[in-house]
Sequence to fold (350 residues):
Amino acid sequence: MIDASWRERLDAVASSAGLPTSRHPRLGDWVRGVSDAYNQAAFPLRWTPERTAARLHFFLPRDAMKVATALRDVPLPEGDGPLRLHDFGAGIGASALGAVLGLRARGVSRPIRLGLSDSDAAGLALAARVLGGLPGVELSRELSLPDLVLFSNVLVEVDHGRPEPARIEAHARLVQNHRASLVLVVEPALRDCARRLQAVRDRLVAAGVPVLAPCTHDAPCPLLRRDTDWCHDDLPVDLPPWLHPVARGAGLRWQGLTYARLVLGQAPAARPCFRVVAPPRDSRGRKERLLCGTLDGDVLTWVDRLEKHASEANAAWATLGRGDGLDLVPAGRRVEPATEVHPWRRPHDG
Ligand SMILES: C[S@@+](CC[C@H](N)C(=O)[O-])C[C@H]1O[C@@H](n2cnc3c(N)ncnc32)[C@H](O)[C@@H]1O
Fold:
């Protein structure tokens, strides 16, 4: 998805903007500095050239991959003309790039018209360098009636410091005011961010907004019942190899991709019956998955498969991880030899 050619492209962007390249020996330290600033929620962040280089060479590819994979299993806007994409809080272009890559990976070949907005004009100027020249993509100053709207790693900053109930209300209003065929919200896979997004989701469902993912039903979010739960994806997708030493130097992970997401549509659409919402529990004789989805009168159920019941029909059970959607035929608390397990689209299947 983000192959080695992107390292060269981002280095060219860095050089043209007078920023250090990805080869700079202190890049890992700068990445750690930006990560610390995010953890301290020191918003708005102060973007020095070093921090901007960290953002460009590390956070941009990582966050682009999050957005690209967040589009893996939802119905995409249809039409003939250019697909109109508005990225709210676009930063230096990671989310818009991820959406373009995700749409192309899903077979969308029509031109894409991109509108970017952000309170940080310098960030947008860099985004124009990153995204300019992408084949089939045109940057647009004024973009009305978008087909797809992105809020990627933005709500974490918006209304920071306000009391939680007011913030949830404001986020729900903000997202609702940007209606489109598809609205994608991505947030860090942190407990508070994810649970806030779950609460926003409950409000939007109550207001009649169709939720396409990650939810499999319209009942109140069951992962809000216990303070210790938060809904997020954890995909087996690693960062590209040239970022491994940078991540190591910064004390960050390069294995796996985690984020919380919410995808809204304008009309209800087919959804998987279940989604895995906890780390898999595998032991010698049994594989258990916590499923969100309607089963026996509840919407949160541990379902297991005994190893002696493994079969061709249910082989996919063993591969399911947190964030994966699936259908079970027939549905039940135990996967039997004849139970069919059908995973929903997963880009990491290759
Ligand atoms: C962490 S960055 C995310 C950038 C990009 N969407 C991504 O996924 O990488 C958050 C961005 O939101 C912008 N932002 C924060 N509050 C905003 C607001 N109220 N309106 C517009 N942009 C805002 C910041 O300037 C920053 O560029």
User: Anything to note?
Assistant: The chain has two domains: 5-265, 274-349.
